[in-house]
Amino acid sequence: MAGQMDSNPSKWLGAPLEQLPTPALTLDQAKVRRNAERMRERCQALGLRLRPHVKTHKTLEGAALATGGGQGGIAVSTLAEARFFAAGGFQDILYAYPLPAGRMQDCLSLAQQLQNFQVLLDSPEGLALLRQHPLPAGKRWHVWLKLDCGNGRAGVRPTDPQAMSLARAIAQEAPEEVALVGVYAHCGNTYGCQDVPAVEGIARGTATAVVDFVTQLRAAGVSCPQASIGSTPSCSHPVPEMSLLTEVHPGNYLFYDLQQSQLGSCQLEDVAIRVLTRVIGHYPHRKQLLVDCGWVGLSLHGRDQAPFGCAAIEGHPELRLVGLTQEHGQVEAIDGRLDFESFPLGSILALIPFHACATAAMHPVYYVHAKGKVVELWHPVRGW
Amino acid sequence: MAGQMDSNPSKWLGAPLEQLPTPALTLDQAKVRRNAERMRERCQALGLRLRPHVKTHKTLEGAALATGGGQGGIAVSTLAEARFFAAGGFQDILYAYPLPAGRMQDCLSLAQQLQNFQVLLDSPEGLALLRQHPLPAGKRWHVWLKLDCGNGRAGVRPTDPQAMSLARAIAQEAPEEVALVGVYAHCGNTYGCQDVPAVEGIARGTATAVVDFVTQLRAAGVSCPQASIGSTPSCSHPVPEMSLLTEVHPGNYLFYDLQQSQLGSCQLEDVAIRVLTRVIGHYPHRKQLLVDCGWVGLSLHGRDQAPFGCAAIEGHPELRLVGLTQEHGQVEAIDGRLDFESFPLGSILALIPFHACATAAMHPVYYVHAKGKVVELWHPVRGW
Q1: What average pLDDT values come out for chain B (384 residues) when binned by 10 residues?
Q2: Is residue B150 left, alpha or beta, with left meaning phi > 0 and alpha meaning psi from -120 to 50?
Q3: Which of A278, A292, B64, B266 could be stapled to B270 by a disulfide with Cβ–Cβ 3.0 to 4.6 Å?
Q4: Tell me, what DSSP letter sits at residue B251?
Q5: What are residue A323's DSSP bridge partners?
Q6: What's the CA gap between A239 and A242, in Å, rounded?
Q7: Structure letter (DSSP) for residue B167
């Protein structure tokens, strides 16, 4: 296909990291595995099913790791992801996005192809769409109701009377065509927190709102087997109230990032993702290095976030990435005294990105390493 | 390859734009052609060769259009672009980026493969790299010296005594191995301007500095046939001093964008790029629409730029895109009175991106349209 890189990244398997062309997205295999394992253990301890969201990495390899190697249930945010993971053998896929009017043919295909393709909606129009596109006899649409428990994006507020009537309609309007699987909330508002107690407060509020809503539903005779909340900050420090849910759907934790370490979701040493970049210029008159990573290799996420901006520079607390253009990064010393001899042209710096989801979206391949060498290549899906 | 979308975008050829899956990057064929033609005419009038930079679109189709259909000389910013355009038949490629120590094998291959592969450098170390990697007999490295005429990124300042000595070394140190082709400056500082006179001031200063430097070189007996400056703002309003150059290398103008219209490089109606997005939710309690374009479909570029932020919404000056998460956009009415009935679920909005280079980098395919239908698909190269 014309749009592909015409070099073959698999030639780097076995190579030392220092040989990779830069900018290069690298993943520490041991850290990714440990992040996956810890989240599974945390969920087991709470008696919760872990349905990892795959939107951060968008790779079969990452999803296999996150589900413990078994191609278990996942959440996706685009139909391109749904198709890609379906083709890769995943049979239990929750398309955790408001049902799109123009894409019902894709949804129909996925529902027919998979053992358990699940959709999400937050409006009567969404339910009407499903009714207009019934599945063949013997199959029903498996539907999650999206609740907005304070995040302020998609979802019906649980206090809105329409929430209960919509849940009832999903469950009872056409039980041979549509089934209510559960209630789903995303506590993305945890990203606005300054510390772990604040994250825990939001997790507690969201879990309680979801569980209360399901309890009301059941009291009203509406079957609703599942209840799920997500976000990496909340699931990295789960509160006891979350044990009343049936599943959770965090995603970023597989890599973590600078933002998550600043939120307290992880320690900086848990962050598995780096962007390797090389020094390409010395400019002593303005006390700056140039590196070969610009916003195409990193994204602009975090630009306004003190103290590091878009990325921290591993092992160099004395340096800051102060500017990014398309393919150039500008690096300065905080105290203005840059020791150029320590960073000869061609030397490598490892950037710890502020937002792993955004940085991963910029790279056509991820280089997974162990003991300093490339041991796997992960290929993400793109598009919609 | 595992990382590809598993749907075939070519099925959309001939389809009305309204049927495209969203978010979708669309290009108005007539506008792209007109933008290409006007830039060619402008350069012809000044007696300048146009060497279009391809980093905005990164497509063979865009480069063919920009060079008038003839696969003429282009500038690229990554080796992935260089390899891609070389494979696509382009023979005159300027790799307009500081020579990378770790990638000399790629540069050697390209220099041997192409009739005219040109490199750029701004340090004695760059020249030493070329000397350490001589081309086979009969071929010389064709080198541009990068000058920094106020942009403050890569390049030697023309007032720095090292500029002259480096130019002389490139031209004379090993004339059988290395040739000085020309002097190259990027006036990216035009992007900080508030109006066209300010852009013209920078263009005048940059062109004059480059021409004066080349004049000094020649007076000192150093052959330097070419002189080039670039940036879409400066080349959209060329000043007479630019006619003393031999070529220019703008890139963004093929699409233009909101930023360029705000800088005065173009009229808003010249902007050829849109991101189509659909309404996926109504949230009257917070007076917001959700649309299916987040930062993966648009980038965060322009977020802090008044009045539109990351994108203007075509035909709807009363609306603003006020928030972006990974796959969601939040739209509000400026006066808080959003007429939800005018934007039913599934209805399409066309976003005019702030920064076309950044938005294009997010899309695996561009849908080119004429008379409301998809007439071409352009496939960009990615990676490094």
Answers
A1: 58 96 98 98 97 98 95 96 97 97 94 97 97 95 97 96 97 97 96 94 97 97 96 96 97 98 97 98 97 98 96 98 98 97 97 98 98 98 96
A2: left
A3: B266
A4: -
A5: A330
A6: 6
A7: H
Percentage of the residues of chain A whose pLDDT score is greater than 90: 96
Interface contact B1-A346, CB threshold 8 A: no
- Residue B133 token pair: 């990697």
User: Looking at the complex, does the CB of residue B363 fall below 8 Å from at least one CB of chain A?
Assistant: yes
What would the pLDDT profile of A217-236 be if each residue is shown by its tens digit? 999 999 999 999 999 999 99
A353 and chain B in contact, CB less than 8 A: no
Contacts 24+ apart (CB under 8 A), B60-64: B60/A2, B60/B84, B60/B85, B60/B88, B60/B89, B61/B368, B61/B376, B61/B378, B62/B32, B62/B254, B62/B378, B63/B88, B63/B90
Q: Which residues pair with B323 in a beta bridge?
A: B330
Question: Which of 163-222 (B) contact A at CB < 8 A?
Answer: 188
pLDDT digits (tens, 9 = 90+) for A314-334: 999 999 999 999 999 999 999
The 10 Å CB-count burial string (b at 16+, else e) for B8-37 is ebeebeeeebeebbbbbbbbbbebbeebbe
For A72-138, strand residue ranges (E) read 74-76, 92-98, 116-121
- Using the 8-state DSSP alphabet, how is residue A80 labeled? H
**Per the structure block, which two tokens stand in for B243?**
């006619």
Contact predicate B293/B331, CB 8 Å: no
Tell me the residues of chain A between 283 and 322 that have a Cβ less than 8 Å away from chain B.
285-286, 290, 292, 295-297, 299-301, 304
pLDDT of residue A1: 37
Q: What is the pTM of this model?
A: 0.97
CA distance B147 to B98: 11
* N-to-C CA span, chain B: 18
Beta bridge partners of A98: A120
Q: How many CB atoms lie within 10 A of CB B154?
A: 24
Residue with tokens 């997500």: A230
What whole-number distance in Å separates Cα of residue A348 and Cα of residue A280?
A: 10
3-state secondary structure A157-169: CCCCHHHHHHHHH
Token pair belonging to A325: 């253009």
Strands B366-370 and B373-378: antiparallel
Helix (H, G, I), strand (E, B) or coil at B353: strand
Residue (of B192, B193, B97, B103) closest to B146 by Cα position: B97
Q: For residues A145 and A183, what is the distance between their CA atoms, to the nearest angstrom?
A: 5
Q: Which one of A23, A83, A380 has the shortest CB-CB distance to B6?
A: A83
Q: Distance (Å, rounded) from C-alpha B197 to C-alpha B129? A: 41
Of A179, A196, A180, A199, which Cα lies nearest the Cα of A188? A199
**Cα B273 to Cα B353: distance, rounded to the nearest angstrom:** 7
A129 close to A104: Cβ distance less than 8 angstroms: yes
A15 has a chain B CB within 8 A of its CB: no
